[in-house]
């Protein structure tokens, strides 16, 4: 079974070793989702490069584990990388996953080959907005906010044309563990990498859906502007989760970005 204990927290994961010489790429999912949101991207990449997806603590089939800060998630990522002896990696994080990637770089910059920051920012939301969400979910459950969240996740076209996929995403969101969801909300609320991202010194790609209602293009662009030399790309006809809505477009950006890394960076050893 694809489970591993990291610091006493059991994490659900899927690792594919790949056949190429590119560095491993690790995908981190967004709040209220599990690693299946990356299925379209990972499937398209095939064996081109090693890939690791996992359910962060409090989500999917992983332990709730208790979340006090974004660095609890960073601890898990450090443990996974050490467990698989991956060395230097490419990190691809969506929303809170992008915050985890930034936190990992702040702690272990020598372990990062490159960053792909999807629909995320150096700081997401306000203390007031997160406290309001937490209070609502605590009193009425995730289902109370689910419809509004899905409007930010996906475009009107997705809502109109992909009803089965929309239902599946609603199920995934509302079935997340309440404690894990609330703990991660608080972790996002308190995370602020505004100063830290100035020190990022690896190739970085910032990506956003053109209709993202959670981290709009202007916000993601502001992140890219803070990171020296970062590349900024907008995916058309996508909301907050382009890996579900436009996986082919995101895969193309990832593939081209990894291919653009210097050869000495890509080679193992």
What topology does this entry show?
Elements: E1 3-6, E2 9-16, E3 25-28, H1 39-45, E4 51-54, H2 70-83, E5 89-94, H3 96-107, E6 112-118, H4 127-140, H5 143-153, H6 156-161, H7 163-174, H8 178-190, E7 204-209, H9 217-226, E8 231-235, H10 242-245, H11 247-260, H12 263-266
Parallel strand pairs: 3-4, 3-5, 5-6, 6-7, 7-8
Antiparallel strand pairs: 1-2, 2-4
Average pLDDT number: 95
> What's the CATH H-level superfamily name?
Alpha/Beta hydrolase fold, catalytic domain
The largest β sheet comes out as: 8 strands, mixed
Q: How many DSSP-defined strands? A: 8
At CATH level 2, the architecture is 3-Layer(aba) Sandwich
Give the count of structural domains: 1
CATH topology: Rossmann fold
Q: Could you list the spans in which at least 5 consecutive residues all have pLDDT below 50?
A: 265-269
Span between termini: 29 Å
For the largest sheet, list the strands in their spatial order: 1-2-4-3-5-6-7-8
| Annotation field: number of helices | 12
Radius of gyration: 17 Å
Question: What sequence of helices (H) and strands (E) makes up the elements?
Answer: EEEHEHEHEHHHHHEHEHHH
Q: How large a portion of the residues is in β-strands, by DSSP E?
A: 15-25%
Q: Provide the CATH top-level class.
A: Alpha Beta
């Amino acid at each position: 079974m694809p489970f591993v204990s990291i610091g006493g927290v059991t994490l659900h994961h899927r690792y594919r070793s790949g056949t190429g010489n590119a560095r491993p790429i690790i995908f981190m999912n967004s709040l209220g989702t599990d690693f299946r949101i990356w299925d379209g991207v990972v499937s398209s990449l095939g064996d081109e490069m090693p890939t690791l997806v996992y359910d962060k603590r409090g989500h999917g089939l992983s332990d709730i584990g208790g979340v006090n800060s974004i660095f609890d998630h960073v601890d898990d990522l450090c443990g996974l990388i050490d467990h698989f002896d991956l060395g230097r990696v490419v990190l691809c994080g969506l929303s809170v996953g992008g915050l985890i990637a930034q936190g990992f770089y702040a702690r272990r910059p020598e372990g990062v080959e490159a960053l792909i920051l999807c629909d995320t920012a150096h700081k997401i939301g306000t203390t007031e907005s997160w406290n309001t969400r937490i209070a609502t979910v605590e009193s009425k459950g995730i289902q109370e906010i689910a419809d509004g969240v899905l409007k930010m996740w996906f475009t009107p076209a997705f809502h109109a044309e992909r009803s089965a996929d929309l239902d599946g995403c609603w199920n995934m969101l509302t079935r997340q563990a309440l404690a894990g969801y609330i703990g991660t909300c608080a972790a996002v609320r308190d995370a602020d990498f505004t100063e830290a991202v100035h020190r990022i010194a690896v190739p970085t790609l910032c990506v956003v859906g053109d209709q993202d209602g959670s981290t709009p293009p202007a916000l993601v662009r502001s992140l890219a502007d803070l990171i020296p030399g970062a590349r900024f790309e907008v995916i058309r006809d996508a909301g907050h989760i382009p890996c579900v809505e436009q996986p082919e477009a995101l895969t193309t950006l990832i593939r081209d970005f990894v291919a653009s890394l210097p050869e000495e960076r890509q080679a193992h050893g």
